[in-house]
Design a protein that fits this description.
Helix content is 22%, strand content 39%. It is α+β, with helices and mostly antiparallel strands and 157 residues long. The chain has a single domain, classed as Pnp Oxidase, Chain A (Roll). Strands 1, 2, 3, 4, 5, 6, 7 and 8 form an 8-stranded antiparallel beta sheet that branches. Strand 7 and strand 8 form a beta hairpin. The longest helix is centred in the middle third of the chain and has 14 residues. The radius of gyration is 16 Å and the shape is globular. The two termini are 14 Å apart. The model has no long low-confidence stretch (mean pLDDT 88).
Length: 157
């Protein structure tokens, strides 16, 4: 991936904080849900309930599809990305603490947390790391439906 494209992807990741995550249900149908995320380079992390359908789906099949975008009043101004990735459950306590500490930094305008509404601890959630395989960068300002397909360096062909 060339440097200008990498910078465009990083800007999209850093400029947003929610994504749509699609996992595969036991019956083979995709299940798409909205989750918050944090990012470092091309690596993303998200939390979900330990007993959630997402966690169960990912325990069976760790392939995911992700979209990150925003609403715009002009269809020809659509920008965003979609990503094929592998989701890996984070089991290292140090990584989990570091990532959970990053979450509030992604939401600096959130109201102060009360005792009833605090970020969960690492032991209370399932934390997943997403490792991108293929990223499709959407940029309709270059033409309707324009995408640039990027294979990540460590991704199999």
């Amino acid at each position: 991936m060339d440097e200008p494209m990498k910078q465009k992807i990083l800007a999209l990741l850093q400029g947003h904080r929610i994504m749509t995550l699609a996992t595969l249900r036991p019956d083979g149908w995709p299940q798409a849900t909205t989750v918050g995320y944090v990012d470092q380079g091309l690596t993303l992390w998200f939390l979900c309930g330990k007993d959630s359908q997402k966690a169960a789906n990912l325990a069976r099949d760790n392939r995911v599809s992700v979209t990150i975008d925003h609403d715009t009043p002009d269809i020809m101004a659509i920008t965003g990305l979609s990503m094929a990735a592998r989701a890996h459950r984070v089991t290292d306590p140090a990584e989990a603490r570091r990532v959970i500490a990053m979450m509030p930094l992604k939401y600096p305008d959130a109201p102060p947390q009360t005792a009833a509404l605090q970020m969960p601890g690492a032991e209370d959630v399932a934390l997943f790391r997403l490792e991108a395989r293929v990223i499709s960068v959407l940029d309709y300002t270059k033409g309707f439906g324009h995408t640039d397909l990027v294979r990540c360096a460590d991704a199999p062909a």
